[in-house]
Amino acid sequence: MRIWLTQAVARFGYGCGLAATAGADGAAPPDDPRSWLARQLDGADPAVFAGLPDTADGLIRLREQRRLKPPPGQSLVEPLFRAELVAQLDRVWRGDTPFRERLVWFWANHFTVSVRQNGVRPIVGAFVREAIRPHVDGRFADMLLAVMRHPAMLLYLDNAGSVGPDSPAGRRSHRGLNENLARECLELHTVSPAAGYTQADVTAFAAILTGWSVDMKADRPGFGFRPRAHEPGIKSLMGRDYPEGEAGGLLALDMLAHHPATYRHLATKLARHFLADDPTPAEIGHVGAALRDSGGDLKAASLALLDLPRAWVPGTKFRDGMSYAAAVLRALGPPPPTPAVDWRLAATGTGEAEVPAMAGGPRAGPDPGGASGAGGRPLFAAPAPGMGPSARPEPVGAVATTDGYVPDRPGTGGATRSYAQAGRGKRPGSPLAGAAAKLGQPTWSAPLPNGWTDEATGWNGPEAMMRRIDWCFAAAGHHPDLDPMEVAEASLGPLLSARTAAAMRGAGDRRDALTLLFSSPEFQMR
């Protein structure tokens, strides 16, 4: 039975590891794998993010930052982003419902919103908590609507400024349609090009979505429908007519959410993520049937994956950068907590300061001692995104950050510092975020709306593999007292190959042995 338990955590979660008790952070589940996975989708989401800012808080910060125009090195929005980063990645690293967490990140990638687009940074975390997380075990139609109405998506794909050419606003300003959101919703989020839609459908859908915008002037900013920017008249999308007004958009999204092509597209992506890069028609059909028969129930689709034999065959999926980093961190054992990032403060060049009074907020900030904000104590550091692998290991006690590594001040003994102590560019953050960035997958920063690839070819190139070896060597250096064979037993168990075990036993020291473990084919796969 142990091999199936280990496979369940590796394939549907983020890997096993050292822990004090069975079932705790990083440990193998305590009973049979399928029921353990299924139970994670029962009832309410156990993740609690008390005190984190909502979308309105983020938009207020964005509005004030645009008004105040702080100088370089100062930011009203950066503390919000860092607070979300620490809290949400903490669930990946330390949480005991890894299947649910993997689904959260799968759907967040499906509906990619990237901080590469101006205006998204202070609300990307709220987008995941508000539009994705509540619906991973619910109806796809509900998730789609939540995503399409969320300010993060409307800003990311430029629909907030889309204006119907014949609308009152369009005639006055001579502005027109922006087709980005309509195109990506059809191509990536719902039916896919396999449905045979045309450019005329894209244009019609963009017209349907005119007026779906963000009200930045409200005391609590958020989604707002602007009737004067909406293109008047009936529109035809994929052979069906839709009325003008916001109601037309609601009807169109409901149609797309339940379209047979959408079910097949979603089934293909789920099977590719959880089974193999080349899912078979039968595997796709099984998941698609679960969606069709349940009216788009995502829990039914997720459980259907567990029925498929390849779900339980080890080594059919290559770990992407974030999954690999999470697996290594979980293998090394649960970290002690670190204080939450206080998003209520403004980042300055020399520390943090109180935020000026702002209309409509902000609300009360986080409880620094609450579980929602507890991240892991930085164990090691990672170079900034875009830097190549380095033969120089990071200094012991370095503080992991979202944008590089910062050696501890002399005399601190490696203690975590507050941002006020760190100053500009030295922001304690999530070790997982720093590691994922070095491995080519900076959090919420996908370069394109199609998100990060699920296929091995995007992650197993020569340079990418050298980065993994360099990074895991640095990580292993911070755990000189761990027994490598105990780590191997906890993280891989019966999946550890005789060849890897022999190489580890012959290693020169514990650090080399751990590096061999984390570089092995069986650890790279899930």
From TrEMBL:
Residues 356-366 have a biased composition (Low complexity). Residues 367-376 have a biased composition (Gly residues). Residues 354-377, 402-434 are annotated as: Disordered. This is DUF1800 family protein. It comes from Rhizosaccharibacter radicis.
